Design the sequence.
């Protein structure tokens, strides 16, 4: 498994074993309701959750499972609901949180979740979870979540037959994309399907990575890079040009509705994490024939990574049941039930490869060989305060396309809430 060389601003370095706060609790014998909070409601993601739930129910029939899922991709809505509940001291049994700064810079910083070192020891997870990933979910020797998967964000999706019909190929650079997009537009096809604002941030990060390269992107998050540089100006200018080739109704569409435009032949491409593969498969489309994929332009050899993980809240509702859920989330059986449907690969290094389709096995190979960088939109590189400032700047930029003002806002965000502060 690849060693993650990510640059999230955490000083984490857990000692093996460490001093966990939560007890693994032996075999969970209790009963009652286990409430798991997520935003997995779309095709593929809801099905993946259901598959993991089946494993949970087989192993722990004494618990009643409450699926508290709030619709809205990337957790935009769910996380607002969760924040309200936490402010009222009403946590669920467990919630879905992204590995990285979303976890460390937000929930750990606010003392909302408990360390899980004992569970890592008792379940043997220190031997099967990549150390780089453990580092991203740790602080001061404490490990704070159970990663269930690895997702790739920098993927460009299309329908192969449609590209043949339109006489285009997946572009490998953003310059090539702009040429291809002009051709497609000339044929009355929307070049790039996009959805609501978080998907614009998702596109922003892939354009930035594709323009600046992996090292250039990493440097922006550890304070060694310069948000005011000419390279960043060029990348933002490219982003503005790419936005010109997206659908006009983007702000009204969810990520899966944007992906549906590609399925329907109304748009040629969409750039989305590989939960889109779970969505395509939920429509009974087959990888390679029903849908195709390529690295987002300029990102071949780079794996823009994120990981969904589950946490143990302080004052968790039904502690024994919460731990039972976490045990399933971290288990080989749970991960191998969930990920082939979700469109992700297991966080564990011992997943059964034979259960994964041709897209997912290619993702496994890329995860093992590519340079890994962290996602902004999905919680790896920036804490919530910094990310919110960037999100506000993107919102303004979508309206005015003012590159200079956008860049200044990004410089200011880094200085006030980020690594430049
Ligand atoms: C991401 C999450 C994925 C998927 C996606 C769309 O933030 O990590 O698991 O759910 O949002 O909802």
Sequence:
């Amino acid at each position: 498994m690849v060693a993650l060389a990510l640059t999230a601003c955490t000083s984490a370095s857990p000692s093996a074993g460490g001093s966990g706060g939560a007890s693994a609790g032996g075999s969970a014998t209790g009963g009652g309701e286990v409430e798991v909070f997520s935003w997995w409601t779309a095709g593929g993601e809801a099905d993946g959750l259901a598959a993991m739930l089946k494993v949970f129910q087989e192993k722990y029939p004494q618990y009643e499972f409450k699926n508290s899922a709030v619709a809205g991709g990337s957790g935009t809505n769910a996380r607002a609901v969760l924040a309200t509940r936490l402010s009222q001291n009403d946590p669920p049994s467990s919630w879905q949180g992204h590995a990285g700064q979303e976890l460390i810079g937000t929930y750990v910083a606010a003392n909302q979740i408990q360390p899980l070192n004992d569970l890592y020891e008792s379940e043997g997870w220190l031997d099967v979870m990549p150390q780089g990933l453990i580092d991203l979910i740790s602080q001061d020797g404490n490990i704070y979540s159970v990663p269930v998967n690895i997702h790739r964000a920098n993927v460009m999706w299309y329908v192969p037959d449609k590209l043949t019909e339109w006489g285009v190929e997946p572009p490998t650079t953003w310059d090539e994309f702009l040429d291809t997009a002009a051709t497609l537009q000339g044929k009355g096809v929307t070049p790039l399907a996009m959805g609501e604002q978080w998907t614009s941030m998702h596109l922003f990060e892939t354009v930035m990575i594709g323009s600046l390269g992996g090292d250039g992107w990493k440097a922006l998050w550890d304070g060694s890079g310069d948000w005011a540089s000419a390279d960043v100006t060029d990348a933002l200018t490219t982003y503005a040009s790419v936005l010109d080739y997206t659908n006009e109704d983007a702000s009204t569409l969810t990520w899966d509705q944007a992906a549906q435009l590609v399925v329907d032949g109304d748009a040629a491409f969409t750039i989305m994490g590989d939960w889109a593969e779970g969505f395509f498969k939920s429509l009974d489309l087959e990888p390679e024939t029903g849908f195709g994929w390529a690295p987002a332009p300029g990102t071949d050899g780079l794996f823009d990574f994120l990981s969904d993980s589950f946490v143990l809240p302080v004052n968790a509702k039904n502690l024994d049941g919460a731990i039972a859920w976490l045990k399933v989330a971290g288990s080989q059986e749970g991960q191998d039930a969930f990920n082939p449907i979700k469109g992700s690969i297991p966080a564990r290094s011992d997943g059964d490869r034979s259960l994964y389709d041709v897209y997912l096995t290619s993702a496994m190979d890329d995860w093992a060989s590519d340079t890994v960088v962290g996602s902004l939109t999905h919680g790896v590189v920036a804490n919530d305060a910094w990310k919110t400032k960037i999100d506000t700047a993107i919102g303004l930029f979508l309206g005015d396309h003012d590159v200079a003002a956008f860049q200044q806002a990004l410089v200011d965000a880094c200085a006030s809430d980020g690594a430049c502060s």
Q: What stands out?
A: The radius of gyration is 21 Å.
